Amino acid sequence: MKLFNEATLRKLEQLSLVAGQVRVGMMKGDRRSKKRGTSIEFADYRNYVRGDDLRRLDWNVYARLERPFIKLLEEEEDLAVHILVDSSASMAWPDVTTDEQKLRYALLLTGALGHIALSSGDLTLVTLLRSEGNQRWGPYRGQQNSLRLLQFLEGAAAAGITDLNLSLQNYALRARRPGLLFIISDLLSPSGYQEGVATLQSRGYEVGLIHVLSPDEVEPPLAGDVKLIDVETGLEAEITLDASTQGQYLARLQEWRGEIEAFCRGRNVHYVPLTTDYPWEKLILQTLRVQGVVK
Asked: d(Cα 133, Cα 129) in Å, to the nearest integer?
């Protein structure tokens, strides 16, 4: 199923992602422009990565060192954008593949953020977190790689159990280029997420946490005697859903979201709680702009 039409892609190309602080591997100073190569004043070198314009490779340095380097000009920033998507079985809810399925919605957000980053010339990496082994795309830079990213996302599927804490910690320890990092997850991981986020921040990442739930997880359309089955572990529980039980559920849900928000606020993490009936375009064009992540 195609994620975006051409008109949507053109709209996304007018945006850019914003990091509050410059990370390792970037020029010193705030990000100043999404345009690349508008200044003739040389600033620095960086390693060549797939997708770079070969016209900007310094052939003299390559001849001396036998290693490819790209010249950075004064107005350029070398931002790395990381997008981590929880692909555990709980993300495949509802089990019909519509834009309101949690994984499908997460992939739409990933495609949009990835296209913005690639169009801005940012180094872009996408990882689908799964217990059976992560699926990785990138690092790539340049708008010409957007189609390749969208094809990668269209083949994604949710399965198994994701230990979110462990996955985030492993990513922090193995990835080479800290930068702006988005986590898109329902956070339904028994191990939690806090230690993983803290490890990412200790490595220099600026973290955004997009908390995705389906509308019927927030307001379950159930009543009476029901059997609940965990789609990841297979554990079962028989309960009676009445007004009192539903009230307790809603109170605990609100408390859980409040705990996440307090954790993120205390660590300067961009936190966005939402349900999948919230238009993803509004999230990109309005919510993340208010958060200062998109401009």
From this structure: 7
